[in-house]
Write a structure and sequence with these properties.
InterPro entries: BTB/POZ_dom (IPR000210), SKP1/BTB/POZ_sf (IPR011333). This protein is an alpha/beta fold. It has 11 helices and 4 strands, in the order H-E-E-E-H-H-H-E-H-H-H-H-H-H-H. The chain folds into 2 domains: 1-90, Potassium Channel Kv1.1, Chain A, CATH 3.30.710; 97-232, no CATH class. The protein is elongated and about 65 Å long.
Length: 239
């Protein structure tokens, strides 16, 4: 089993040294170095090979198999920490209210083909959006970091659409009372035209089909069926 993480006030010190080391004699230990700072994780091989990406590295005669070492220089240590904890059986993703951290971890889970972790992370993102209104600036960052067709992009557009329709005053960008998110929405439209285009058509479609009587509100992505935002392997839907 993995050692418990240090207390919150010790986190910075731990990051500067080694994080979350695992010592056991039952299986081989693989050294995993993450990021340019080469944050060091020591992980059971039997845990890593639950992920097909790591299994391939450690079973195909590659250098990683011979040296029992994997370098993940392009990844973020916090994202890999979430990924490894998931492989060790910690199925509750605890990132408090940081939508950007969730999105970054989601993209990492996508990279390493862990759809169940992706689904847990997007459920966490939806909960955050229910508790705290989505900031257009953060939505823009999430959109920019996600690949085309990502469920994260769908969630960002749908959540902004819902928030604008239900709290339009907060998104006003002109007049005497400029909403707290008004200027950020303008920035989004200027800097992420592809996202602005998707948002426009979402609102246009709703205005012409889902809101004919002008009294309805869009479905809240945070409380709607989770399956819509989930990744389904081999076309299998959620149970």
């Amino acid at each position: 089993m993995a050692e418990k993480r240090p207390a919150e006030d010790e986190v910075d010190d731990v990051k500067a040294k080694k994080r979350w080391q695992v010592f056991a004699h039952a299986t081989s230990i693989i050294k995993v170095y993450v990021g340019k700072d080469k944050v060091d994780y020591q992980v059971h091989e039997s845990v890593l090979v639950q992920c097909s990406w790591f299994k391939k590295c450690l079973s195909s005669g590659m250098r990683e198999q011979q040296e029992k070492k994997i370098d993940l220089e392009e990844d973020d240590a916090d994202d890999i920490d979430i990924l490894l904890r998931w492989l060790y059986g910690e199925k509750e993703v605890n990132v408090e209210r940081d939508i950007l951290r969730v999105a970054s971890a989601y993209n990492t889970a996508d990279k390493y083909r862990l759809p169940e972790l992706q689904n847990a992370l997007i459920d966490t993102a939806r909960k955050i959006c229910v508790a705290h209104r989505l900031n257009p600036r953060e939505a823009m960052i999430v959109w920019g970091g996600a690949p085309e067709g990502s469920k994260l992009r769908t969630l960002m557009v749908n959540q902004l659409h819902y928030d604008i329709c239900t709290s339009s005053e907060e998104y006003k960008s002109e007049g005497e009372k400029v909403g707290p998110y008004g200027r950020e929405l303008i920035t989004l439209m200027e800097e992420k035209p592809d996202m602005a285009h998707a948002l426009y058509w979402k609102m246009h479609k709703w205005a012409n089909t889902g809101n004919r009587n002008r009294q309805q509100t869009p479905v809240n992505p945070g409380t709607a069926g989770a399956c819509f935002y989930h990744v389904h392997v081999d076309g299998k839907r959620c149970a």
